[in-house]
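Technical appendix A lists one of the benchmark inputs used to test multi-chain prediction within the project. The record comprises two sequence entries:
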Amino acid sequence: MRGLSLSSIVGRIAITDGMDDQAIKALEDAGHEVTSTHYSIEELLDGVLAEFDAVVVRSATKITAEVLASSSSDGSKLGFIGRAGVGVDNIDVAAATNNGIVVCNTPGASTRSVVEMTIGHFIASARHIARADRSLREGKWQKKELKGTEIAGKSLGLIGLGRIARGVADAASSLGMEVHAYDPYVQSSPDWINMHDDVDDLFRKCTHISVHCNLSEETRNLVNSARIGMMPGVGNDGTACGNHIVSCARGGIVDESDAAMALQNGQLQTLALDVFDREPLGDSELLSLDGFHGSPHIAASTMEAQRRIGTEMTSLLIEYFETGSPSTSLN
Amino acid sequence: MRGLSLSSIVGRIAITDGMDDQAIKALEDAGHEVTSTHYSIEELLDGVLAEFDAVVVRSATKITAEVLASSSSDGSKLGFIGRAGVGVDNIDVAAATNNGIVVCNTPGASTRSVVEMTIGHFIASARHIARADRSLREGKWQKKELKGTEIAGKSLGLIGLGRIARGVADAASSLGMEVHAYDPYVQSSPDWINMHDDVDDLFRKCTHISVHCNLSEETRNLVNSARIGMMPGVGNDGTACGNHIVSCARGGIVDESDAAMALQNGQLQTLALDVFDREPLGDSELLSLDGFHGSPHIAASTMEAQRRIGTEMTSLLIEYFETGSPSTSLN
């Protein structure tokens, strides 16, 4: 059967960037035909997606307007794009909408994982955990050089106050930090979070900054030399803890070249990045700096998040095939 | 003036392993004569401490019975030993007591720092933070290999339930862990901490174990192959997260050779140590293992802890010189 109708509760699903095994099994158990394989951009442009009713991607597969233009053929038409994760930078949602294709993601599934990674990166920064391990492996015992500072008693500034940032706020607050945030798009926030109307004020107030916004023209290079230069370097508790920045959001929001300069001139004591302007990172001047440590875009990469993503995506797909419209979608 | 009497509120104080600058200034402002210098074991055995009314050490200076035997001379006698920190492994407290010397430490000053380091080491372990940074610096982008697990939804087992362990319990609980503990010496504990009478039960129940006891004949090699083999490897939430051990307590409690073997055979997924059987660590088979990361005994080494230690030690010294007996002491 080609083309989806309300009577077709069994569908052909392409999983192009992998998904949790149990989720794939649940889809197969529900009678769906699942093909888990990665397609090249040539195959995508050649219309391979027209063979499927639904496709589920992570970030590796790019669903451009051109790919979508070739996603229907005689009597067969892709109707559902699932993003197993949060960010849909790799999907042209407007083009999908124009083509009558529903787009769904699983926004809450990885929140906890990213929250923990953010807190982990802050403590690893303030206490030099990655640097200490490197130093030990080089046969050194740099007890004095690796004196750190506590995160308790310091001000944390959140750029963006969505689901993940609110989780970070809760965790940081329970660990003794004072929480500040800037988000021109939120209407309401808990009383105990100090909201700022001007992002510069957030930098002036906070020794610790965490990035939790999308990449857009508005946020590109938002964390730059000028703003890093505004950070106070001294915590609320009077400790000269220096300034610390973490980003587990998207590359391009922290200006890596400005941040490298700030690490060298001491405006920034540490920088921890899980995301980069160019991924994979490859060569970078950051890698030669002691105050930097990084991870390869793994903040959401946990067994728990992948299981939750699989469970949520399976529900959305089954709803879609049963009713023609999933309970939540992005368009 | 030699010898301390109640009328001598001004004393000669040796600071042999350094102390916070502001604390030294406060002592000098109070009229005390402060000598901040490190003495060799020969100088100590030669009676250099007899020149002082009080000595403040960290861990580098060893105050043995022999050193104490030479700490008095004609009309001059050391009367106060301050440990700027917690552990008094380096001070023969019994010999001090026999010599009528009061011994004080600053037990609460570094609690927060060690709590944060412990949590930081657990997240760094579960999310491969040190390993990810090494991998990035080697030019790799190991997104798949570095998939981690959340600490939320897992059981944390605390060996020892003193001040630091209770702080770790609070933090871990606020981050979504279920907390278990073993401590044959505590009389009472909060309801929400699951106490175990048998340390083996703690290992059987917990995927995450944190060491918070002293080193003694009873605790030496307490964390060994047999007990690591009892750990469940699967969290309360059903995640096959593997087993994780952190120690920021004292070297010798975790059997490093057994732990290395457990990392190699997979019984242990990660091990993070701030303390080692031999310090400085030098060569160790642990350093060749991906699942290990370490730090050079810096869990209490923060600006905040050092400031609090200095403030507390200054108060104890001033009380001692004013009244002959500080408000708290170890003997």
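Chain B is about 30% helix and 15% strand. The first strand of chain B starts at residue 12 and ends at 15. Comparable benchmark entries are summarised in Table A2.
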